[in-house]
Amino acid sequence: MAGDPRSVKIVVTTHKKYRMPVDPVYVPLQVGASIEKTEDGKPLDLGYARDDTGENISEKNALYCELTGLYWAWKNLDCDYLGLVHYRRYFGSRTHAAKTGDPFDAIIGGEELRSVLGTCRVVVPRMRRYYIETLYSHYEHTHYAAHLYETRRILADRYPEYLGSFDRVLQRTGGHMFNMMIMDRECLDTYCTWLFDILGELEKRIDVTGLSFYQARYCGRVGEIILNVWLDYQLHTGKLRREDICELPYIYTEKVEWGRKAASFLKAKFFHQKYEF
Fold first, then answer.
1. Residues whose CB falls within 8 Å of the CB of residue 167, separated by 6 or more in sequence, listed in order
2. Are the C-beta atoms of 141 and 269 separated by less than 8 Å?
3. SS3 content of the chain, % helix, strand, coil (to 5)
4. 232 and which of 86, 108, 159, 165 could share a cystine (Cβ 3.0–4.6 Å)?
5. 266 within 8 A of 142, measured Cβ to Cβ
């Protein structure tokens, strides 16, 4: 059951200096801080909180993407609700549009967010639809299906009760993507314990030799998909009710190159060209 969201923190993961929301619920976080260097080889310091402090997996950012930020927040921040967004992608307000043309005006603020969290336990972005692709086929065309096969083997070994959810989710034509979520502390502890156990084993089983930098970020991409697996299992077992999960629109703060994205999507589907951007 949802409770009173007394304290909320949303980490905003970034690898560069960037405009940030001014609302105090947002915590800018430099990810991959332990490995990022300036041009002269010195440690890069953006002036934000860093994911290489406290208990962390910052050195794994090349594999985990923004999930090193989720791990850091899980282990080091004390709050009732904790979430993850990106420096260019946020949860959007249900009531305020960017009437000024500034997308930052449409980002959900703390007051509205607390109202939402008073009615649910988990917030995810609205479903992203692929229509002519399942989550499995889209991943197979744009990345490497072996990552998913190995993930399923790990589930069979460690969490066999999740196999039904895994198989269902992979055949859907949409999902809650981007590794964006806000959860109450109990849900977050359960989810992160499960997620990082799976990804920690997955990184041992996948050889990145020969993979590009972009394609080697597979732990982060598998994480996007299995968030949906975790949610499906919670719903099917009654651990969460549908009303415990709220969807919010998501805001992208930069212009989307839809032509380039569409071309890459079609090349991946029909000509088996993996994504490299």
1. none
2. yes
3. 45, 15, 40
4. 165
5. no
Tell me if residue 144 falls in helix, strand or coil: coil
> Cβ distance 27 to 21 under 8 Å?
no
Domain ranges of the chain: 8-270
With the C-alpha atoms ordered 51, 57, 58, 60, is the resulting torsion angle positive or negative?
negative
What tokens does 171 get? 């055949």
How open is the CA angle 174-177-180, to the nearest 5 degrees? 150
Contacts 24+ apart (CB under 8 A), 91-99: 91/10, 91/123, 91/125, 91/180, 91/182, 91/248, 91/249, 91/250, 91/251, 92/248, 92/249, 92/250, 92/251, 93/249, 94/248, 94/249, 98/251
Residue that is written with structure tokens 């990345």 in the block: 143
In the numeric block, the tokens 């959900």 are attached to 108
- CB of 84 within 8 A of CB of 11? yes
Run of H or E residues at 10? strand 8-14
* CB contact at 8 A, 217 and 63: yes
Band of residue 20 on the pLDDT scale cut at 50, 70, 90: very high
How many residues would you count in the chain?
Answer: 277
Summarised one tens digit per residue, pLDDT across range 128-141 is 999 999 999 999 99
